Amino acid sequence: MLEIKNLAKVFGERVIFKEMDLTINDGEVLSIVGPSGIGKTTFLRILAGLLPADQGELILDNESLDITGNRQGAQVGVIFQDFNLFPHYTVKQNVALAPQLVKKVAKKEAEKEAEELLKNLGLVEQMNQYPFQLSGGQKQRVAIARALAMKPGILAYDEPTSGLDAESTKRVIKVIQQLKTQGVTQLIVTHDLPFAQAVADQTFDFGVDVDRGGSL
Amino acid sequence: MDYMMQILPSLLNGLKMTIGVFVLTLIGSVPLGMLISLALRSDIYLLKWVMNAYVWVMRGTPLLLQIVFVYYGLSLANIMTLPRFEAAVITFILNYAAYFAEIFRGGIQSIPQGQYDGAQVLGLSKFQTMWKIIFPQVTKIVMPSVGNEVVNLVKDSSLVYVIGLGDLMRAGNIAASRDVTLVPYLLVGLIYLILIALATLIQRRMEKKMNFYR
User: Fold this and answer.
1) Cα B53 off chain centre by
2) Residues with Cβ < 8 Å from A69, sequence gap 6 or more?
3) Residues A130-158: what's their mean pLDDT?
4) Residue A124 belongs to some domain of the structure
5) pTM score, whole prediction
6) How far away is chain B from the Cα of A72, in angstroms, using its nearest Cα?
7) B123·A146 Cβ contact <8 A
8) Most exposed: A2, B69, B103, B116, by fewest CB within 10 Å?
């Protein structure tokens, strides 16, 4: 379960958002919608630990997450808009790398787990390929497998349908639903409202549900 | 032909010195250049400033002058007296490290921020990120520029004559002035060309080997 309490972010004088309160229960899928440039990605980067927040708390499975921008560990799995796969590693290596380096899992075990995850996501044939050989949808599923390999408390997607064709979008929806049945908590930042409504248990409208006025 | 065979041993003897300077410089300057490139991007202002000044001095003054300074200058100033060969190799390493640092800095800058973000959210430490994610990609990007510097280094190694070291060029010089002929220079040129051809071949092989991804 992720609890967001009184979260706020300011750039200079400009309040991006403040007094943001939100709870996502275990196994729930939450969409955060709103037009481009409204601060959704800023929020996601704070959740991912890549940007500091100015105020508030992030509590994941009863543990407080660092919000100073210096987080250690992979409590929040992130699927970036550009996927950010490592181009010099194969698909399997992309997935098996972090468990080996961060969790000190033995190589064989990490690779076995990676194979399992990739199999579940329909990427058996791509395991030994490099990211440049994959389609956008395939890259995205590799990114999902890579995040899942670290067993995060929540998976967060940044604009998962941008740049995908209709077929690939359907496939992402399927994957998100499949992960939901496996109990994975998921948060999706998107401006694609039909997609958000198709996958989410609850939708949070960044344009309406957060406060952006005044000062902190 | 007889004459060529006659002077070849002395030239090959000089070649040993050239290769010695070349190999040791490469071994020392590439890792040092990597470290300096990291320092150039450091958040510690003083470190960054000092390293920028270092690169400025090393790239802004002739290598010949630096060799003279390290060998004669340090000795005259009673700081330390280095043997000729060590003085030459140390100067070459310090000089080439500055060039390599700038090449690596450019390479690091060309890696998208997303690679750092991807590594960070997976929990990789800064060291792991640089070692496993960034530097392998940088190596591929900088390989052509590094190859260029390597070719320069082969030729620059002839500058060690200034402190009396007997390299290939000096061996050619001695033979040419003793026998009043240009033939030794022709041979010297040929040997340099072979060296450069070898270096280029190795560089191309490495580039090809690293071309498994885009």
Assistant:
1) 19
2) A49, A50, A51, A52
3) 96
4) no
5) 0.89
6) 6
7) no
8) B69
Question: Smallest Cβ distance to A88: which of B117, B124, B213?
Answer: B213
**Closest chain A residue to B115 measured between Cα atoms?**
A84
Q: Which domain holds residue A24?
A: 1-73+183-216
- For the cut 90, the answer to whether the pLDDT of residue A73 exceeds it is no
Q: Which superfamily does CATH assign the domain made up of B2-212 to?
A: MetI-like (1.10.3720.10)
Instruction: Mark yes or no for CB contact B123/A147 under 8 Å.
Output: no
- The ipTM assigned to this model is 0.94
Which of A45, A50, A84, A85 is most worth mutating to test chain B (most B CB atoms within 10 A of its CB)?
A84
Structure confidence at residue A177 (pLDDT): 95
Domains in chain B: boundaries: 2-212
Q: In what order do the strands lie in the sheet with A63-64?
A: A14-24, A2-11, A55-60, A63-64
pLDDT reported for residue A160:
94
Chain A to chain B, count of Cβ pairs less than 8 Å apart? 60
User: Cβ separation of A98 and B136 shorter than 8 Å?
Assistant: no
> Can you give the pLDDT at residue B214?
86
Residues of chain B with pLDDT under 50: none
The yes-or-no verdict on residue A210 having pLDDT over 80 is no
Give the chain A residue nearest B140 (alpha carbons): A88
Closest CA to B72 of B171, B164, B156: B164
Rounded distance, CA B122 to CA A45, Å?
Answer: 13
pLDDT at A156 over 80: yes
**Alpha helix stretches (DSSP H) within chain A:** 40-48, 91-102, 107-120, 136-148, 166-181, 193-199
A104 → chain B, closest CA residue: B124
Q: What's the structural domain count of chain A?
A: 1
Q: What is the mean pLDDT of chain A?
A: 93
Give A42 to chain B, closest Cα distance, Å: 13
Task: Judge whether residue A212 has pLDDT over 80.
Answer: no
A190: domain CATH number is: 3.40.50.300
Q: What pLDDT score was predicted for residue B115? A: 98
What is the pLDDT, as a whole number, of residue A70?
86
Q: What is the pLDDT of residue B186?
A: 94
